[in-house]
Amino acid sequence: MRIVEARVIVTCPGRNFVTLKIVTEDGVSGVGDATLNGRELAVVAYLEEHVVPLLIGRDPARIEDTWQYLYKGSYWRRGPVTMTAIAAVDTALWDIKGKVAGLPVYQLLGGRSREGVTVYGHANAATAEELMPEIARFVARGYRAVRVQTGIPGLSSVYGVGHKGDSYEPANAALPEEAVWDTALYLDQVPRVFADVRAEFGPHLRLLHDVHHRLTPIEAARLGRSLEPFALTWLEDPVPAELQDGFRLIRQHTTTPLAVGEVFNTVWDCHELITSQLIDYVRATVVHAGGITHLRRIFDLAALHHVRSGSHGATDLSPVCMAAALHLDLAIPNFGLQEYMPHPPEADEVFPHGYHFEDGYLHPSETPGLGVDIDEELAARYPYRPASLPVNRLTDGTLHSW
Ligand code: CS2
Ligand code: MG
């Protein structure tokens, strides 16, 4: 069997998505998510100019060889654009392999290790008072874990708090919107919110919080220590993660579990975090960490060091990525949690898929392959819309992590 075509499809059903569709001479096709929020067209160019020409004529069954060819053969290894492009190819080839074998991809990854994939939803509100009914809504829908984000008194906006309901889309302007941040106000407010949430919902609901890269290690240590009475399942992205060694300082001061990795694109971004047990969950994703082939390696290294998976699953990762993630989530031994932000209806129509939510779990499709596709005719009705992620400044104007 040979690859005869590879198409890069850009569509914007509610937000921009980039999808790679690979077609074989036998007419079997596979899809891969290639969406990099705010940098979509960089991946489109990388795929169309530097990857697609290399795929034509290749054997789609040679997934590992293709991965190595695109990774080592690029010379300029790693980075979010390169690894998102490689991820799209890898994911599409696993889709094809499953279809050819007549099996859902999780069966090719060792079979089912659990009954379903436990997911967490996003409860967010501008005030603690408005937050409680939001959390209650997720509990009523059967969610076993809830991420909690609230506004910060004194700040006009904050990460994670936006539109009512499920989908929060931060890339909502052609040029970066500017937000203002104040760490002292944040560190004062968050423990208060979790005290109220625990008082309202009791000790057993699994609660998470996303700091979104904004603290220094000692500030993160203080926050982790202050949240210990509320027993979070994880505190996410406490600090920017380029300096992996910085997590040692956080670890020295708090037992609050740490989850990091949605911005990682190879195992080398988290090798020290994992092998030194500086984190508890690794959040790397299929779409940004080189696809199923490489993410599986990251999770296998994590499994040797008591680290569990906790993959990113925001709405800027397409249903193709979610479908692929669920097959890996179902099969690996060290699954932790899967983030799940439901896509808007128009996106679900463009990306028909077989995964479904039931009783706090997501269940992947049992059809051969990944169980997802793209309706290219419908996709064409949603043209690309330039969109950038915001930037963040401190009150004195200093540029800060968003
Ligand atoms: C967030 C993301 O879901 C999360 O944990 O960190 O929403 C993140 O802000 C976006 O994916 C960025 O594109
Ligand atoms: Mg996050």
From TrEMBL:
| This protein's name | D-mannonate dehydratase
* Entries under SMART domains matching the protein: MR_MLE
Pfam name, any one: MR_MLE_C
The species is Actinoplanes regularis
Instruction: State the organism's lineage.
Output: Bacteria, Bacillati, Actinomycetota, Actinomycetes, Micromonosporales
Q: What SUPFAM superfamilies does the annotation carry?
A: Enolase C-terminal domain-like, Enolase N-terminal domain-like
InterPro entries xrefs: D-mannonate_dehydratase-like, DgoD-like, Enolase-like_C_sf, Enolase-like_N, Enolase_C-like, Mandel_Rmase/mucon_lact_enz_CS, Mandelate_racemase_C, Mandelate_racemase_N_dom
Per UniProt, residues of the Mandelate racemase/muconate lactonizing enzyme C-terminal domain are 129-257
* Gene3D superfamilies for the chain: Enolase-like C-terminal domain, Enolase-like, N-terminal domain
Q: What GO terms in the biological process aspect are recorded for it?
A: amino acid catabolic process; carbohydrate catabolic process
Q: Which GO terms describe its molecular function?
A: magnesium ion binding; mannonate dehydratase activity
